[in-house]
Amino acid sequence: MRNLYILGLALLLLLSGCAPKFGTETEVVQDSDKKAEKAIIPRYNISDSYYKAVIPYKTGKARGIVSAYINNRLDIDEFETGLMRIAQDSFPSNKYFFQEGQHLEKNTIQDWLKRKRSDAQQTAYEAEKKAKKELPNEGLNPVFDTSKEDPGYEAAMQKSPIYIGAITEQNYLIKNNEDKLEVGGIVIGIGMNTHHYYNLPASMGGYPRDVAISDADIEREGKIAAEEIINRIRTQKEYTSIRDLPIVVALFKQQAASSVAPGNFIMKAKVDANSSKIGKWDTVNEKYFFFPSTEAKNNNREDSLMVQNFSDAIADFFPNFTAVVGKGFYKNDELQELTLTIPMQFYGKAEVIGFTQYVTGLIMEHFDNYISLQVYIESESGAESVIVRDAGESEPTVHVYN
What we know:
Blueprint: H1 2-17, H2 19-22, E1 23-28, E2 37-42, H3 65-69, H4 73-87, E3 97-100, H5 106-112, H6 119-128, H7 153-159, E4 164-175, E5 181-192, E6 195-199, E7 208-212, H8 215-235, E8 247-253, E9 264-271, E10 282-283, E11 286-291, H9 294-299, H10 301-315, E12 325-331, E13 334-343, H11 349-366, E14 372-379, E15 382-389, E16 397-400
Parallel strand pairs: 5-8, 13-14
Antiparallel strand pairs: 1-2, 3-4, 4-5, 6-7, 8-9, 9-10, 11-12, 12-13, 14-15, 15-16
């Protein structure tokens, strides 16, 4: 999915260079007090699963903060693209257009990811900053008021871990009655830590520590943070232009830094326009599994066996082959998308072509076409070929790199 998303952005860049031929020009109005801007809506979309992005492409106000605060690269990708999937239920891609968040500033999100101040800390802060008319927003993570010299430092850290690991904003634009684009909805993703990593003070040995966070704590703290974020958007003057818009908020469960499979969204809720109340929280039943793995075998035995049989069939005819590895995306306990990587040692282009042809045939035999499938064939030199079959398609698309 990530590769298709990148492909989509590349296509959008191409379209921006040939706007009169491939796109339609319109105006974008994001704030009532700002002058309208000319923009291009791409005429073509690579898939109904993706949103068209407005050109020129605007990067988010908090660009880079997700990658800075999330430990696992796989989580970074899924946090962003998975949130687009969540958005589809409220802001369908055939009516809305995607834009990175333009309202939550980078320093604001950084401030929100800090810990709350204790009463003593707040008093000291106010005394130091009393000349300021406004105080920065307080952090969303729990108070920690123990010095590193305190013998109870480690116990306090275990009791009060960092729950909120990342926050991101996405904007969804829609045409108004004057045929101009304006923000029609906001989506907020909250990345929840499953592990809190920290180092002991030097006086205690300086060793790294890892606090595992329970699902119950993730859900409780995530809901509390969501309510506070919505309250701030609805009441603070810097968000006047989006104060009355519908907002979707979703909780993302990050995986451990060493995980080979990305995390997943676990809950979502919608706040109606002109409301500050979060409605019913809905469970999001999504999950990634790595193949081969004990977890995949225990939870999805048939799919695990399907991938293993595919790998065995390759091994029967190609002595240089080691094993197929990959990940499966499940929604409502059904396999939706399978991404496989096949590492091989090749001695010529003819061998690459022959191997790719053979693997393509095996795909037709081993994988039903209700699964969206991407197979990447690689060598020490890099990518050699790719085989892609969208769900519902009878035959895959194959490309051998020059």
